[in-house]
Every structure is written in structure tokens, then in C-alpha cells.
Amino acid sequence: MQEYPTTFLHVDMDAFFASVEQRDHPELRGKPVIVGAPPDQRGVVAAASYEARAFGVHSAMPSSIAKQKCPQAIFVSHNFANYREASRQIMRIFESYTPLVQPLSIDEAFLDITGSQRLLGDGPTIAEKIRTDIHDQTALTASVGVAPNMFLAKIASDMNKPDGLTVVPFEPDEIKAFLAPLPIGRIWGVGKVTQKKLLSLGITTIGSLQTFDRGKLEKAIGKRSANVFGRLAFGIDERGIAGNSIDKSISNETTFERDITDRERIRSTYLKLIDKVGHRLRKAGLFATTAHLKLRWSDFTTITRQTRFSMPCCDDITLREVGLELLEMHLQNRPVRLIGFGVSGLTETDKPIDQQLDLFEPRKSKQNEKRSRLSQAADRVKKKYGNESLRRGSDLK
Fold first, then answer.
1. Which residues are within 8 A (CB) of 184 and not within 5 positions of it... i.e. 6 or more apart?
2. Across 37-169, where does the E strand assignment appear?
3. Which residues pair with 205 in a beta bridge?
4. What is the pTM of this model?
5. What is the set of active-site residues?
6. pLDDT by residue (tens digit) across 76-120?
């Protein structure tokens, strides 16, 4: 029997939110469309059509600046119900080709099609069939990367947007040559800080990282990062599709009408966000292992910080305790524009993933169970009598 190579696809919808709006509203087609807050209000761009991107507009850009860059842009409010329905259609298409699907967000996913090739054709053939199905069934376009691993597939899907198909070589020497001319920032995990360090060493492309002295690299960015980035520079990525399709994270954030420094108002707003995340966690029947804080200052500088829970949890009390610890550690005496709270590492059990339980685990487990029951009871009261029917005191215990 013929053996087929391990093959991954990364499918990324093209300007998803904006494309859905242009599909549903023919008068918007071919025009610069921006999904997000109006330019006369505080807020940011959620998505921009390719016509708007040609003027330098991109997601997360303040709407006021987007209007300056593209005065003729048409701003529309988001319609998440429509986006979710389109996403469900697309995910069903993926699942018709392979059960090994890992969504990264509402508009992109990894697919392991290794086992599908015997019946459906090789990687490029399946990728083209999926792109055709998406277009025929949703009137939207997608860009797809075909590669021997997830890292390379993700890079490839972004190379010929929009409506593109890119196939990465499968031989090691050819992979090395394929990656060499790409900018160093294309490597997963190379953020602004790490990129600045690498650039200071003269490492501007993935090719220059491939030939850089490993000892000097470890000294500059640490042994672990040097090992990870060094392997990725040669296209080595041994990860596989996660065993389930649970959402990677749940989060809520808000942008203040005016930049504020009132710590009590910041704190109270933040606690409401935490409670919203907790309610969504319990409604989904999930537990979180990591908490995230997001702060954006008045100059648009944004920080994100995270910490792990001692045990997976979903109750408001634990979420508030850990969330407030993060806030107190990182809130500065400067005006705040946006604040957000989120959780990740979601599981369907409250048992520690690594099962390395300590002597205090039974007590922690009972405490978490009690807190979960209390939070669930509060959810039932709010559902029956409204969100304002319960108010919490300052004591989290």
C-alpha cells in the first residue's frame, strides 16, 4: 500500500469579517470597508477589507487613525451572529475532509489530512477542493498553506493572500531554502522584544539565523528560545493536531470613553469583565488553567500578562483573586485606555493536567468545588432575576 507523507493545511479566511459584510451587502463590494467602531468614537478596527488595507489600515488600529488613512472608508458595526454562522459552515467543510481539525480562531484552522490522501488526493488537491467548497457554499474566499508540518503551513497560507494556495517543499534542503529569505519576524514566537535582540545581532532573515553561531544566540536570548527558534529556522515542528476542538481562550475587554486614572473605576470595570468570563466558562462547561490581563495605555502601548492557576477552575472567586493579583502587579500610574481579562488552557476537567498533585490538593479541590457551586448558584439567580440582582462585597473570601 502506498504511504502518504504527513501533510498539514492551514486555512485562513481572507479579511473574514469585512468579506462577510461585503457578501451580505452587495453595495459594499469593491469598496474600502472597515468593521469596528465609528471614527468619531473611541475604539479600534476589528477587520478591514483589502480595499481598505491598501491604504495602510489594519486590525487593532484606532478607528480615528484608520479614517485619516482612508477617508473614503465605509465603517460598519460588527455582526457576530453572521460571522459565527459562516464559521460553522466553514468548519463543517473542514470536517468533511478530515476529523483532525484544530481551529485557531473563528476564521482559521489547521487540518491534518495525512490519512485523507488515499481517498481524496494529495495535499494540493485537497486544499483546492476545500477552497472551492468554501467559495461555492459561503461565497467567501480562503488562502491555504500546504506543508509537512503546522509551522510551515501557517507561514505558507499568508504568502499569496487573498484567495491563494501555497505549497511548501517537503525535502529538508528545499525547506531550508524556502525559509531562508523570509524576515526573522515570520518565526512563531519572535515578538517585538526578541526581534529587536535578533536584529541587533545582524539576524534579519531566517537564513541568517540558520547560520548564526548557536553559543552567541543562547547568550543573547537564552538556551530554550535559541533551541526552539533554531529548530523552526530549519522548518522543524513536531506538533500535531490537538485532541479536541475546545476554544483556546475566553476573554472580554472594554475601551473607556476617556482615558482614566481612577484606580477604583478601573478595578470595578475589571471585576465585571472577570465575572463575564467566569459565566462564559461555566456555561461552556470548561475550566481554565491560565489567567490573562490586558492593559492599553493612553499612548496605545499595550501589555499582556499571564499567570497559571494552582488548579483548573471556573469559579468567580478564584478568577477574581488571581485576576486582581495580576492587576495590582502591573497597573501603573498612567492613563488607561483599555482593560481586558481572559483565560486560556481550557479543559473539560478540574483535575491538574500533569496530575502532579501536592499534599494540599484534596483541600484545594474541595475549596474549588465549593466555590464552583456558589458561582453556579449565582448564575441561576442572575438568570432568573437579572444581572443586577446580586452584588458582591469587596471581600473575595
1. 190, 195, 198, 199, 203, 204, 205, 206, 208, 209
2. 45-48, 74-76, 101-105, 108-112, 142-147, 165-167
3. 183
4. 0.66
5. 108
6. 998 888 998 999 999 999 999 998 998 888 899 999 999 999 999
